[in-house]
Amino acid sequence: MRMAGDTIASASPPDDVFAATPEVAARLAGTTVAQLERWRHSGLVVPTVTRRLSPRNEVRLYDFAGVVELRILTRLREARSSPRLSPQHIRQVVTRLRAEYGRPLTELRYAVQGGELYFQHPDGSWEGGRRPGQLVVAEVIMLEEVRAELRSAARKLDREPGQIVRRRKVLGSKPTFAGTRIPVSAVRAYLDRGLPDTEILAAYPQLTEADIDAVRAAC
Predict the structure, then answer these.
(1) What is the rounded CA–CA span in Å between residue 191 and residue 170?
(2) Counting Cβ atoms within 10 Å, is residue 21 exposed (0-12), middle (13-18) or buried (19+)?
């Protein structure tokens, strides 16, 4: 039986097949589409895919590494440093590093101190600012933490309360609540027994009233 709001969806895509529109990429990176456009025009971070479908319609998509780059830039702009880190300094450092690294924003660890941007090479040595080679620990941008945050945020985008989906290879493609592995049949069993919503939410904290209402509407 196909239920209200029922859609076919796959599990969260792995990093190598991740694709985000500018709107989604900006949301995940914690910035604005306008800022993405400024970085695109300056060449700091450009979409992985740019395809013009018509004179007024162009598709732009960012891969996972691209969104990581956007997130790193956002973190660098927000770093609490006195004086503040200037966009020009960030651009100069990244441009310089591209001569040595393919995508330096996703390959190196960064730190901000006194309005200067420092970076750590794979061998552990630090460089940048007025004192190259000096180890700095203030405002260190942890790359793996950024990646983990983005993966978590991307999963949350798929979690829309009240949406019922079928995902291939998940519980035999049976209806589940979007963003979870909780089968709709489990909630229906509670409702059939006349149990209150509070008991359902206690058993399944990931769910909301909207999810329960969606099951009622489909009955």
Answers:
(1) 23
(2) middle
- The rounded radius of gyration (Å) of the Cα atoms in the chain is 22
119 three-state secondary structure: strand
Q: For 144-198, what is each residue's pLDDT tens digit? A: 777 777 776 766 655 566 777 776 666 667 888 877 778 899 999 999 999 999 9
Predicted TM-score (pTM) of this structure: 0.56
Q: Which residues pair with 111 in a beta bridge?
A: 118
Q: Are 12 and 154 a contacting pair, CB within 8 Å? A: yes
Contact 87, 35 (CB under 8 A): no
User: Is the backbone of residue 82 left (phi > 0), alpha (psi -120 to 50) or beta?
Assistant: beta
E strand or H helix that includes residue 109: strand 109-113
Give the residue ranges of DSSP H helices in 158-208.
184-192, 197-203
Question: CA-to-CA distance for 31 and 25, rounded, in angstroms?
Answer: 9
Domain ranges of the chain: 15-155, 161-218
DSSP class of residue 175 equals E
Does the 161-218 domain belong in CATH 3.90.580.10? Answer: no
Omega before 83 within 30 of 0, i.e. cis: yes
**DSSP secondary structure code for residue 161 in this structure:** T
Give the 3-state secondary structure percentages of the chain, helix then strand then coil, rounded to 5: 45, 15, 40
